[in-house]
Amino acid sequence: MDRVLILGATSAVACEVARLHEGRGDRLHLVGRSHDKLAKLVKDLGASSRVTCAQADFLEEGSNERVVHEAIEALGGLDRALVAHGELGDQLESERSFQEASRILRVNFTSVVSLLIPIASYLERERRGRIGVITSVAGDRGRPRNYTYGAAKGGLAIYLQGVRSRLYSAGVSVTTLKLGPVDTPMTVSHEKNALFARVEPVARGIVAAMDAGTPEAYVPSFWAAIMPIVNHTPERLFQKLPFLSGR
Predict the structure, then answer these.
(1) Domain 3-245 adopts which CATH fold?
(2) Which H or E run contains 231?
(3) Per-state percent for the chain, helix, strand, coil, to nearest 5
(4) CA 98 to chain CA centroid, nearest Å
(5) Most buried among 29, 34, 95, 108, by the most CB within 10 A?
(6) 135-155 pLDDT, tens per residue?
């Protein structure tokens, strides 16, 4: 039985990951912003003796070390942590307003770092464990439709490379989970196409990648074939292809 911490636990993908771990008999501590959504998730899991939860606003970065330490105390230790916290934000507004741009960067980068520091330090001392962090294929190359969000996720991916190398000798795996678009409430206003994945297989892919200790995993896996093409398309050609450079 693993002791599993899920931060940002009320997102659709994180809820499904929690269900998978509950089905394996793992001990869970779930942290999210909405008390009502957390309570509903715990009730839906139907395993109250093995599931605890706590409400937190991760944008209060100064409180996140305490949030992590309280979670570890509630679990009686820590074997696995998934950071599923993030938000697309309003790209157009972020181009007009530094306030919105700063908020997107804080949600998707600095607040995540403030959670990772105490998690990594604890597992480094324990010399065991697994960390998974949800990033995005948007972080691989800047595109007009989401480059503020993509910049935060790209910066996070670089940060995780460093954490992964730092923790390697301690026997702690760090998995960067590069998700493509998923059909969830966060993307409800987006026009759907064949590249949008369903929640259930994405959650299974996350759990499998963390089980394997995969350094970087594209989820779904077909993005591993798509993104090298996107990344290596010359800039002059890239800007002429509306499906890449358009809104």
Answers:
(1) Rossmann fold (3.40.50)
(2) helix 223-232
(3) 55, 15, 30
(4) 24
(5) 108
(6) 999 999 999 999 999 999 999
The string of DSSP codes covering 139-162 is GTS--TTTHHHHHHHHHHHHHHHH
Contact 219, 199 (CB under 8 A): no
Give me 29's structure tokens. Answer: 């501590």
pTM check: above 0.85: yes
Identify the pLDDT of residue 241: 85
**Type and span of the H or E element at 73:** helix 64-75
Give the β-pairing of 27-32 and 51-55.
parallel
CA pseudo-torsion sign 174, 179, 185, 187: positive
Q: What is the DSSP code string of 182-193?
A: B-SGGGTTSPP-
Is 122 buried (19+), middle (13-18) or exposed (0-12) by CB count in 10 A? middle
Contacts of residue 7, Cβ cutoff 8 Å, sequence gap at least 6? 31, 32, 58, 67, 81, 82, 83, 84, 85, 115
Rounded (5°) CA angle 38-4-106: 65
Q: Which helix (H) or strand (E) holds 173?
A: strand 172-179
Place of tokens 């697994």: 130
Q: How far apart are the first and last CA of the chain?
A: 45
Site of tokens 């793992």: 26
d(CA 69, CA 47): 23
Half-sphere exposure of 206 (CA within 13 A, CB side): 33
Helix axes 12-23, 35-45, angle to 10 degrees: 30
* Pairwise CA distance, residues 116 & 81, whole Å: 9
